[in-house]
């Protein structure tokens, strides 16, 4: 029994539901029991339980299907999955483990053994979901129990260490009033503390809150758990470094993305600072069939490629975003913004993953389902992800429509895609498409030598929308050609009128896969540049790696035509697609632009650096200059310079900016 009542336990049993329900009640749990598979993911999420019990005794095939449905959802929500098996079904253990089971119990077993198994599973869930992970480089000190509070008591018992830190002496068992302890926190910290204590009392589950210590300036994290036997809330305290994205980079070993722990830490940090978030959860459909058909090695390769596509799409604008692989074939994109904008982004995700993947000799086509939920007041990571999981479960169960929003999250209705398509036509007519520029710099001298032109949609009601959303809407509405022409022409004309400060810079402009197959596009583009008055020898055309591979012959013809017109050509986002030496040799190129993931990986493990070094060496052996995008730290820049990278762009210098800001940046760097 917890301070807020017994903890929930989700039980799915096809033969012994009533028996297990009585056992769970007798042990102090609140069982939520079912006999049928229908909507099992939604029911587990709705139960708020940390532990799911699947009783496969006498119903092995049903139990296996239940584990397949629940495995990813339980893991993504930091839970535990306990499977009960008949004695003769032990051979199925490996498959249950592969599907996400964390604990097992084989019959015959006693009531006490069942209760112990559930307790072990609950402890596992507490460890998995228990707040922030320590950053690498911390002093390695283990967390110490620092305070205890019994519900209804006006006082809190402090450890000597915490009492000393609070300036209250070191008496063992020192007790102070709850209000006196709260006064040691700033207003934001008091609000976070009350919310965390309330969550722990209500759910009986571990939670956490963080705050800024006003005396030391350090950021502290308090991890709360419920001591069921004593009926008390127990707090553990650790010191965190000042928040930065680097604090949340515990990695998924297969994709290299953030993992579930990193995602929850990122969410809690943003919510603590009052940032409104939207969680977009994507599940690859029927991924177990891909593993069965092609093998786990191919499955892992496809997961890696899917992660790269998702991350590339998530980097389409300047809003804070975080990408993680939560479990199995389930990914999360966490972003600041509105549910409407997230709905647009989710549509782009589904369409991006629908394009075929190449893994060795296999061409693999994926389907996906997406759930979207927006944060509300009082949320923590667990609450936000649970609502997004509920929306994803609904999307998985729906016959039509790949995307579902959690409607009660206060996010409003989904955007009408047809309305957006009409809006895009108006945007082109009324010049609502803006061009921003991101500086490109010499690695050796630090001089700004060029800028990439990027599109932004100044939507009258949704605010600024990034290029990924803009071009996704254009592709659905058959306005892709018109939009591409509009953006390219506007970027070149702006550059032709650059002030004297920018007169020596190169301009980089993007072309799409659709442009590559347009008859006469190269001649049309070269003519447009000539009419603008911009020197074609200062213009670089960038085309994505995936755009090139769709029609290699057409790409080679187009790029040759552009180079004949005096332009230079770059492969953009190298490392996100097929990265084939064969097509690099076959295409007339001047630059290879490595994707930001590769740029950032160079500061990772020795294996990461070897991969980046190989890409740069390969490009330079073909006579190509190398541009690194997404460079954010001096460490990354220094390592890229050592490996022979020639140019870079990224937030280390500047995000994409308007023309006047670009001129100011160039002027300041020349002083």
Would you kindly provide a brief summary of this structure?
With 671 residues, the protein is an alpha/beta fold. It has 25 helices and 27 strands.
Textual characterization of the structure:
- Helix content is 43%, strand content 23%.
- The protein is of the alpha/beta class.
- It has an eight-stranded mixed barrel with strand order 19-20-22-23-24-25-26-27, surrounded by five helices.
- Strand 9 (207-212) and strand 10 form a beta hairpin.
Helices, strands, pairings?
Layout (H helix, E strand, L loop, with lengths): L7 E6 L3 H10 L3 E5 L5 H8 L3 E5 L4 H17 L3 E6 L7 H6 L4 E4 L4 H19 L14 E7 L4 E4 L1 H6 L9 E3 H6 L3 H17 L3 E6 L6 E9 L4 E9 L19 H13 L4 E8 L2 H8 L1 H19 L6 E7 L2 E7 L2 H16 L2 E3 L2 E3 L3 E7 L6 H17 L5 E3 L11 H13 L3 E10 L5 E12 L3 E3 L1 H10 L3 H17 L9 E6 L1 H4 L4 H12 L6 E6 H5 L2 H13 L3 E7 L6 H6 L4 E4 L1 H6 L4 H16 L3 E4 L5 H10 L3 E2 L10 H12 L1
Parallel strand pairs: 1-2, 1-3, 3-4, 4-5, 17-18, 20-22, 22-23, 23-24, 24-25, 25-26, 26-27
Antiparallel strand pairs: 6-7, 6-11, 7-8, 9-10, 10-11, 12-14, 12-17, 13-14, 15-16, 19-20, 19-27, 20-21
Q: Keywords, please?
A:
about 675 residues; alpha/beta; eight-stranded mixed β-barrel; six-stranded antiparallel β-sheet; 25 helices
**Number of helices, counting only DSSP H or I runs of 4 residues or more:** 25
Approximate shape: globular
Distance between the termini: 68 Å
Percent strand: 15-25%
Radius of gyration: 28 Å
Strand order of the largest sheet: 19-20-22-23-24-25-26-27
Largest sheet: 8 strands, mixed, barrel
Class inferred from helices and paired strands: alpha/beta
Chain-averaged pLDDT: 79
Portion of residues within helices: 40-55%
The low-pLDDT segments are: 130-145, 241-247, 408-416
* DSSP E strands, number: 27
């Amino acid at each position: 029994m917890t301070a807020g009542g017994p903890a929930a336990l989700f039980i799915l049993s096809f033969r012994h539901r009533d028996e297990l329900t009585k056992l769970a009640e007798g042990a102090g749990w609140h069982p939520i029991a079912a006999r049928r598979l229908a909507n099992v993911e939604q029911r587990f999420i709705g139960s708020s339980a940390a532990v799911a019990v699947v009783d496969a005794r006498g119903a092995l095939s049903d139990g296996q299907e239940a584990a397949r449905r629940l495995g990813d959802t339980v893991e993504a929500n930091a839970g535990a999955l306990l499977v009960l098996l008949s004695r003769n079904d032990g051979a199925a253990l490996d498959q249950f483990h592969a599907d996400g089971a964390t604990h097992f119990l084989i019959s015959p077993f006693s009531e006490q053994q069942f209760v112990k198994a559930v307790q072990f599973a609950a402890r596992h869930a507490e460890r998995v979901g228990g707040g922030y992970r320590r950053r690498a480089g911390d002093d390695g000190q283990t967390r110490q129990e620092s305070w205890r509070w019994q519900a209804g008591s006006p006082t809190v018992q402090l450890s000597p260490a915490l009492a000393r830190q609070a300036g209250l002496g070191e008496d063992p068992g020192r007790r102070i009033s709850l209000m006196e302890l709260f006064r040691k926190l700033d207003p934001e910290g008091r609000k976070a503390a009350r919310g965390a204590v309330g969550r722990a009392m209500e759910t009986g589950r571990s939670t956490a809150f963080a705050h800024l210590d006003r005396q030391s300036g350090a950021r502290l994290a308090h991890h709360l758990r419920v001591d069921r036997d004593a009926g008390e809330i127990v707090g553990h305290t650790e010191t965190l470094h000042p928040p930065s994205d680097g604090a949340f980079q515990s990695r998924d070993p297969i994709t290299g993305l953030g993992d579930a722990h990193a995602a929850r830490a990122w969410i809690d940090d943003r919510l603590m600072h009052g940032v409104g978030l939207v969680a977009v959860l994507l599940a690859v459909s029927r991924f177990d069939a891909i593993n069965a058909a092609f093998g786990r090695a191919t499955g892992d390769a496809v997961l890696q490629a899917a992660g790269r596509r998702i991350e590339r799409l998530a980097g389409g604008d300047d809003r804070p975003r975080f990408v993680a692989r939560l479990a199995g074939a389930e990914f999360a994109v966490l972003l600041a913004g509105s549910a409407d904008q997230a709905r647009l982004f989710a549509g782009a995700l589904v369409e991006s993953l629908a394009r075929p993947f190449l893994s060795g000799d296999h061409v693999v086509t994926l389907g996906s389902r997406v759930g979207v939920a927006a944060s509300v007041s009082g949320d923590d990571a667990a609450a936000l992800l649970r609502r997004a999981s509920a929306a994803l479960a609904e999307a998985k169960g729906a016959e039509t429509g790949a995307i579902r929003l959690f409607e009660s999250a206060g996010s409003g209705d989904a955007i009408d895609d047809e309305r957006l398509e009409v809006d895009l036509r108006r945007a082109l007519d009324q010049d609502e498409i803006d061009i921003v520029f991101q500086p490109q710099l010499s690695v050796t001298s630090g001089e700004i030598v060029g800028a990439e032109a990027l599109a932004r949609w100044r939507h009258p009601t949704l605010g600024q929308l990034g290029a990924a959303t803009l071009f996704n809407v254009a592709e659905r509405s058959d306005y892709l050609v018109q939009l591409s022409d509009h953006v390219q022409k506007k970027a070149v004309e702006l550059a032709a009128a650059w002030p004297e400060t920018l007169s020596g810079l190169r301009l980089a402009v993007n072309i799409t896969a659709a442009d590559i197959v347009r008859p006469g596009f190269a001649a049309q583009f070269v003519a447009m540049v000539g009419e603008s008055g911009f020197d074609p020898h200062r213009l670089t055309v960038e085309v994505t790696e995936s755009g090139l591979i769709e029609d290699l012959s057409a790409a080679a013809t187009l790029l040759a035509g552009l180079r004949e017109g005096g332009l230079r050509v770059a492969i953009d986002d190298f490392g996100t697609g097929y990265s084939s030496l064969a097509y690099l040799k076959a295409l007339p190129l001047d630059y290879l632009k490595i994707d930001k993931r590769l740029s950032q990986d160079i500061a990772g493990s020795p294996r990461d650096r070897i991969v980046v070094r190989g890409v740069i060496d390969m490009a330079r052996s073909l006579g190509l200059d190398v541009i690194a995008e997404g460079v954010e730290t001096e460490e990354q820049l220094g390592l890229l310079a050592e490996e022979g990278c020639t140019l870079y762009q990224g937030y280390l210098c500047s995000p994409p900016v308007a023309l006047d800001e670009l001129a100011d940046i160039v002027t300041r760097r020349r002083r």
